[in-house]
Write a structure and sequence with these properties.
By secondary structure, this protein is mainly alpha-helical. It folds into three domains: about 1-155, Serine Threonine Protein Phosphatase 5, Tetratricopeptide repeat (Alpha Horseshoe), CATH 1.25.40; about 170-230, Serine Threonine Protein Phosphatase 5, Tetratricopeptide repeat (Alpha Horseshoe), CATH 1.25.40.10; about 235-290, no CATH class. It has helices spanning about 20, 25-35, 40-55, 60-70, 75-85, 90-105, 110-125, 130-150, 170-180, 185-195, 200-215, 215-230, 235-250, 255-270, 275-285.
């Protein structure tokens, strides 16, 4: 997610070669972790270190932009997020960069520009994610209401019916809890949502992410299996498959991890050569033992009679 990939977060796409490039995925994970802790200066340093090796990595550009926004460097943040948008190949991920640009502009009181970005965000998603489109419309409305406080040049174009915002959609609250590192609350919210919408694949996916972060590995992977079955497009499935591969990899289950890395490559090879190359690098770093390399327990000697 990152996610949404939600997906948050899920796929670091890093073209490049040589040993320096191998560290870029780790830098992406470290910069995202620093952002989650509110350490924008460290996140910026890590993202830029990764970009020296893999300058086309969209997630590193995204993290750079988020860190710069957190440091109050709005124009630099907008440039970094625009770079992320250009490098992302999937509309869901492109929309994340656009939404983050809108938030940075809104926080800076540049409401006309923020409104333009919120409208772009809604246009990218269209009818594919009604909750996220509603959230963008809500933020746009709030920006218009708050615009007079920012001074001239940011006047609202129309008055909303009510200035009392509705609560964020449940799916967004789950994602927010994950980003904040409150995985127990994310799991609670996801379970709440699934009682009403048991087949919502994104709620199932984020439930799996929360479980993984609570060290409930088998339950988390089972949830990701269910989410993959519920998603329609290869790009959506790919994000889930990659996250499952990483979970198995980190748990030392290399045979399962390599199988998922290879499946991920089969899903995105034609649209994202850099992402496929990254997955293959991960697969090579988690080697499956050859049969003759597996240490077998010695057979017990027959008991003497």
């Amino acid at each position: 997610m990152r996610t949404l990939w939600p997906l948050l977060a899920l796929v670091g796409i890093a073209p490049g070669c040589a040993t320096v490039a191998e560290s870029a995925p780790r830098k992406g994970g470290e910069s995202a972790a620093a952002l989650a802790k509110g350490d924008n200066a460290r996140a910026l340093a890590l993202a830029r270190e990764g970009l020296e090796a893999t300058p086309n990595n969209p997630w590193l550009h995204y993290d750079e932009g988020c860190a710069l926004a957190g440091l109050g460097r709005v124009d630099d943040a907008l440039a970094a997020l625009s770079a992320a948008e250009r490098e992302f190949v999937d509309d869901h991920f492109r929309s994340l960069a656009v939404f983050r640009r809108a938030l940075a502009l809104q926080a800076a009181g540049r409401c006309d520009e923020a409104t333009h970005e919120y409208e772009r965000y809604q246009a990218i998603l269209g009818g594919n994610d009604s909750d996220s489109v509603a959230l963008a419309a809500r933020n746009e409305s709030l920006c218009r209401v708050a615009a007079p406080a920012y001074g001239a040049g940011a006047r609202p174009r129309e008055s909303p019916v009510s200035v009392t915002p509705p609560p964020p959609p449940l799916g967004n609250r789950v994602v927010s809890a994950i980003v904040a590192g409150d995985h127990a609350r994310a799991l609670l919210l996801a379970n709440e949502g699934l009682r009403e919408n048991p087949r919502d694949p994104w709620l199932v996916f984020n439930r799996g992410i929360a479980l993984l972060n609570l060290d409930r590995l088998d339950e988390g992977i089972a949830a990701l299996d269910e989410a993959e079955r519920g998603l329609a497009t290869p790009q959506e499935k790919a994000g889930v498959v990659f996250r499952r591969a990483r979970a198995n990899d980190q748990a030392g289950r290399c045979a399962r991890a390599v199988r998922d890395y290879e499946r991920y490559v089969s899903l995105i090879r034609d649209i994202d050569e850099a992402g496929a190359a990254l997955a293959l690098r991960y697969a090579r770093s988690c080697p499956v033992p050859r049969p003759w390399e597996v240490t077998k327990a010695p057979r017990s000697s027959p008991s003497p009679r």
